[in-house]
Design a protein that fits this description.
The chain is built from 16 helices and 20 strands. Strand 15 and strand 16 form a beta hairpin. The chain folds into three domains: about 210 residues, HUPs (Rossmann fold); about 60 residues, no CATH class; about 110 residues, Phenylalanyl-trna Synthetase, Chain B, domain 3 (Phenylalanyl-tRNA Synthetase, Chain B, domain 3), CATH 3.50.40. The chain has a six-stranded mixed β-sheet with strand order 3-2-1-4-6-5, with helices on both faces. The chain has a five-stranded antiparallel β-sheet with strand order 7-8-11-10-9. It is of the alpha+beta class. Helix 4 packs across helix 5 and helix 11 crosses helix 12. The longest helix is centred in the middle third of the chain and has 30 residues.
Length: about 450
């Protein structure tokens, strides 16, 4: 098994020379065998153990077991205890999802350990602390997970039952960013046999037999049926998963090329003409920004409706405009700040010479200095904003003014508005000044403000 392990790591380029490997160590047979194989191969490793406190004394027993093992073999161990049930109640997620989110968040902290992991007097039992003075630099290049071939098959069926597409059905990869799975080639039986033959001890998780969990139901009830139908059913399922992974990679490359041909990117704004979309392409495109399949269905239905329909993922806003779909970050503070910096708030006051000074340029505002209440500042549109567009006697809602110009939602959110010290709108930057501040034949001094770098 050691030879196959070595070949798999080298063949898939999982570990480079000099890499430090963090090993997720639960105490179960899979992770214990992975730890021993990596250790016997001489890799620079450390262990990370999660205690989710879901099985009472059994969970604490797992922690004690891995502590004793780490001390015995002289490998640094990181332990984190979680109040998983509290996380479940506060976030309204399943226990399985809670444990997954908690452990991967902590693993990411450990891998990016420069300012997260703290020193300890014990070489095998470091503590987590908020005392900044104790922080030191630790570096991990990879996180090794003990997923194996049977996990791969179970994941395939889990995703199949969730209605996954090709991306989900390809299941797990040997390497995904900094996560590596050096045992993905080995079956559960091979791993267990190796442990027995080599005297490797492990802890049994009693919940692995509980078919209330979908994965266990697949493991204990579905897979024996496949085994009875075909003796090499598991091998053939894995072949199919590998084919799907290769096809998914090709599909993603072609999709990326297709999107690059039809997408327009202007800073943080992404837009594509409606005419380019069918349902599948729309889904593949907007999922990049964290939108779900159900949201895709709603967006697709909105394409033929009234423009202006808005959708939100965790980080992005999608707006169905008249001819395009536009996607941009929900948090536009950085973009707004950059635009504000382009408005020259400290202009040069110039002597009055009307025939020489008036400029026909949307990015220059020339104002009557004596009508201004200084200082001026920039902000962005707020609900209820009104101003008197140049040439009008009455006021107009800024939102109506934007609509008259067919502004998109992104333009409305990112067009700077210049206001005076009383918050009167002086200039919709790049569009129209307020009539109250225009140059007249009584103007003594012109105040010129420019927009743009």
């Amino acid at each position: 098994m050691l030879e196959q392990f070595r070949k798999y790591i080298n063949g898939n380029h999982l570990i480079n020379k000099g890499d430090r490997i963090l090993v997720a160590l639960s105490g179960g047979v899979d992770s214990m065998v992975l730890a021993e194989l990596l250790r016997r191969e001489g890799y620079d490793i450390a262990f990370a153990h999660c205690n989710f406190h879901l099985r009472g004394a059994e969970s604490d027993g797992d922690e004690q077991f891995v502590r004793e093992y780490a001390e015995k073999v002289g490998v640094k161990l990181f332990v984190r205890q979680f109040d998983t049930i509290d996380f479940v109640e506060n976030n309204k997620v399943s226990v399985e999802m809670a444990a997954r989110e908690l452990r991967y968040a902590w693993f990411n902290d450990l891998i990016n350990a420069n300012e997260h992991i703290l020193s300890s007097e014990s070489n095998t039992r470091p503590v987590i602390s908020t005392e900044r003075s104790e922080w030191r630099n630790l570096r991990f290049d990879k996180l090794a997970l003990a997923h194996h071939a049977d996990d791969q098959i179970e994941t395939f069926f889990i995703n199949l039952l969730r209605g996954a597409g090709i991306k989900g059905l390809k299941a797990m990869q040997a390497r995904n960013s900094l996560y590596i799975r050096p045992l993905l080639w080995a079956s559960r039986e091979e791993i267990k046999s190796f442990a027995i033959e080599n005297g490797i001890q492990w802890r049994e998780d009693s919940t692995n037999r509980d078919t209330i969990y979908l994965r266990n139901k697949i493991r204990h009830e579905l897979m024996p049926v496949f085994d009875s139908i075909k003796h090499d059913a598991r091998e053939k399922i894995l072949e199919s998963v590998n084919h799907l992974a290769a096809e998914n990679q090709l599909y993603r490359e072609l999709l990326k090329e297709k999107i690059s041909q039809i997408e327009t990117v202007d800073g943080v704004l992404h837009s594509i003409s409606k005419r380019h979309f069918d349902r599948q392409l729309l889904f593949e495109y907007i999922r990049i920004f964290g939108f779900s399949y159900s949201q895709c269905e709603s967006v697709f239905a909105a394409l033929d409706g009234e423009p202006g329909k808005e959708f939100y993922s965790n980080d992005y806003q999608l707006v169905v405009e008249k001819d395009t779909i536009e996607i941009f970050p929900i948090d536009l503070e950085r973009t707004r700040h950059a635009l504000s910096q382009q408005v020259a708030i400290q202009p040069v006051r110039t002597g009055y010479a009307l025939s020489l000074l008036i400029k026909d340029n949307d990015n220059i505002a020339q104002l009557d200095y004596d009508t201004l209440h200084l200082p001026l500042k920039t902000r962005f549109w707020q609900q209820g904003d009104r101003f008197r567009p140049l040439g009008m006697h009455g006021t107009k809602l800024v939102s109506d003014f934007f609509n008259d110009l067919n502004f998109t939602a992104f333009q409305k959110k990112t067009t700077p508005i210049l206001v005076d010290s009383d918050d009167n709108i002086v200039w919709i930057v790049g569009c129209r000044i307020d009539d109250r501040f225009k140059i007249t034949d009584k103007t003594k001094t012109i105040y010129e403000i420019k927009f743009g770098e």
